[in-house]
Amino acid sequence: xxxxxxxxxxxxxxxxxxxxxxxxxxxxxxxxxxxxxxxxxxxxxxxxxxxxxxxxxxxxxxxxxxxxxxxxxxxxxxxxxxxxxxxxxxxxxx
Amino acid sequence: xxxxxxxxxxxxxxxxxxxxxxxxxxxxxxxxxxxxxxxxxxxxxxxxxxxxxxxxxxxxxxxxxxxxxxxxxxxxxxxxxxxxxxxxxxxxxxxxxxxxxxxxxxxxxxxxxxxxxxxxxxxxxxxxxxxxxxxxxxxxxxxxxxxxxxxxxxxxxxxxxxxxxxxxxxxxxxxxxxxxxxxxxxxxxxxxxxxxxxxxxxxxxxxxxxxxxxxxxxxxxxxxxxxxxxxxxxxxxxxxxxxxxxxxxxxxxxxxxxxxxxxxxxxxxxxxxxxxxxxxxxxx
Lengths: 94, 284
What we know:
Radius of gyration of chain B: 20 Å
Structural class of chain A: mainly alpha
Shape of chain B: globular
Shape of chain A: flat
Enzyme class (chain A): translocase
Largest interface: A-B, 80 and 104 residues
Number of strands of chain B: 0
Distance between the termini of chain B: 57 Å
Protein name (chain A): proton-translocating NAD(P)(+) transhydrogenase
Helix content of chain A: over 70%
Subcellular location (chain A): Cell inner membrane
Number of domains of chain A: 2
Largest sheet of chain A: none
Number of strands of chain A: 0
Distance between the termini of chain A: 48 Å
Catalytic activity (chain A): NAD(+) + NADPH + H(+)(in) = NADH + NADP(+) + H(+)(out)
Number of helices of chain A: 5
InterPro entries (chain A): NADP_transhyd_a_C
Strand content of chain B: under 5%
Oligomer: heterodimer
């Protein structure tokens, strides 16, 4: 279990990492990056899977089931859309 | 931690590295196309290993439900993402982002309903409640943004007394949130009401905003979902969610600021220009 100040340090370091990643990005990549980071928080899928795997009773199971559907949509949809956006950068590359 | 616990945690570490490296690559036109593939590999690894997560105590049915849910959500998103016109991309990002926010809120709800499942520390309870709120707002707000860009909600209409309603709802959310924290989640009714209030707040916040400002708003909700995922990751002790969520929360916040600046608007202007109906500051 990650607790107390260790958790705080992890939050802080991850936040700086996110900030630095975006730092000097050309304007043309803003929308693809928004889409790419939208894909990355699709990692909520692993949490939804664990929550569904531990659900007791009808309501918890239903919420977990719906949550997993939504999370899978976030991950898969985020990937497909980002990949399609970035395909436009093909011609400028070579 | 055990053998499987070690493997799962190792896969999350690999995923975190691949996410950060992939996002970094997406920041440069030359490497951007490779970046999404790197991040995708991280997602695949983390998802596959999660089936062996030692914290999952359910029976075979739970695993079947997991696979069915992933198949439904994944295939629907795959088909819609492949079919959509290039011009309609922003609303699809909004839609998928809203789904992520809804998933974070769902995790929060389950944790709050089954409150005896963990020894609730004070910080943990606050994180769960705040994560549920942000996730719910992002879910409802993103869906409104999607509906607006899709042309299903054409006017940026305001209900009479919109400002008052939004402020009153914000006050209610604070009161209910505090009541949930004070009662250690022991009142499921409060939790349920709180969830619906967060949805209503997301709707009220987004409805007055015009279509031209939507990309900035979508980016903001993207950062919101990231934060909600990070907070719920802390609640259910999932380091992959903490790292990825927090990186997106910070990157998304900065991106929102840059996008607003690119349009010569400040974020407060975007958010509240429609909100303060009768000040002449509405830039169109």
